[in-house]
Amino acid sequence: MAGPDIPLDKAYLTAIWLETLFYGMNFVLYWTCMSMLTWRRRTPRVNKLLVSIGTLMFAFSTAHVSLGFQRLIEGFIVLRDQPGGPGAFFSDVSIPANVVKVGIHTVNSIIGDSIVVWRCWLVWGRDWKMCILPILLIIASAICGFAQTVNFAHAQQLHSAFAHSLQIWNGSLFSLSLATNVVVTMLISLRVWYMLRMEGGSATFRYWRVLVIIIESGMIYSVALVCEITLYFLGSNAFYIVYDPIAQLTAITPTLIIVLAALQLTSSDIHSRLTRSKNVHVFQPRGGVGTTVPLDTLQFAPNDAILSGAQPKSTFLSSIVSSGATESDTVLATKREAEESLA
Which residues make Cβ contacts (< 8 Å) with residue 33, sequence separation at least 6? Predict the structure, then answer.
């Protein structure tokens, strides 16, 4: 049974308020993502696939929060004098607006999980073997999610999302989604930590490394899913306070990953830049005084005196040539003396 400490209407009102806050974050993040992928892009062409995915997820998130406001107005204003009041209205899971919300939540979750798996594939060097289990879990989650939507549409007699017939599909969906994100989070975190740990760096870089791991692995979404599934199996109405805002997190987390990729701040980009910087040899004058210059940028002009056979000026290059010539003359003289003594 649902926990008696939080009335359903109060839980739903709090959930929509929190979802609105998350939608504001999603709104700002979406337009930031679009600017990074279009007019402020760092690539020759616009990545139409990422733009389409980001726009689709934002559209679904907008529809979800809009339907939530519609239900809020119906429950607290239009139908507030109906038997049972707002609590009875929100307990009816078969209302069309609620069914559409559940379907949107499912689709957004599938898209979001797919983007995180795509990130896992890239982090592991485009190795599909590391993504087989997460892909299977996403397929299973999609099946349970759409089955859940169908069951909600036919649950006119059930006035609780915690009913046993609904709990089977809900519990399966939440558990599979959590398993998907935990597996992908572990795979990405381990790989990213290994890649960036080898680079060392300053304390600021180490803090940035932790932030990259949290964002790129979708760890925030995984923590939210743990809270959601715990409250659901406890039968508490506080479950709704987490459930609706997660609909925005399903878009926020993948969009953050897309922004990191557009800014070339993912673990792969950082690893590549640090590897290239370590491979650049540096020339520095003796004593450590002077400007540090990469060797691959130095160019030496030919010495006309050396090319003409004349004695070069007293330079570092001429001293090397002179010392080399002196050493070679000494070796030849010693060799002649040895031959004469043997004769």
Answer: 54, 255, 258, 259, 262
Distance, CA of 263 to CA of 342 (rounded, Å): 76
Q: Which pair of tokens denotes residue 138?
A: 């996403």
Amino acid at 238: A
Identify the pLDDT of residue 150: 92
294: which strand partners?
Answer: 282
Contact 239, 228 (CB under 8 A): yes
Contact indicator for 266, 244 with CB cutoff of 8 Å: no
Residues 6+ apart with CB under 8 A from 37: 46, 47, 50, 51, 54, 258, 262
Asked if 220 and 250 touch (Cβ cutoff 8 Å), the reply is no
Q: Is the pLDDT of residue 34 over 50?
A: yes
Using alpha carbons, list the distances in angstroms from residue 82 to 76, 87, 121, 122: 10, 10, 52, 54
Per-residue pLDDT tens digits for 78-88: 988 888 889 88
Q: How far is CA 43 from the centre of its chain?
A: 19
CB–CB of 209/223 below 8 Å? no
Three-state secondary-structure class, residue 293: strand
CB hemisphere CA count around 185 (13 angstroms): 16
Cα–Cα distance, 285 to 245 (Å, whole number): 59
Q: How far apart are CA 109 and CA 305, in angstroms?
A: 74
Tokens 């932790």, located at residue = 210
Given the structure tokens 């923590």, which residue do they identify? 223
Query: What is the signed CA dihedral for 106, 107, 112, 116, rounded to 10 degrees?
Result: 90
Encode burial over 288-322: b for 16+ CB neighbours within 10 A, e otherwise: eeeeeeeeeeeeeeeeeeeeeeeebeeeeeeeeee
In DSSP terms, 282 is beta-bridged to 294
* pTM for this predicted structure: 0.71
- Rounded CA separation 16/108 (Å): 18
Within 10 Å of residue 211's Cβ, how many Cβ atoms?
A: 11
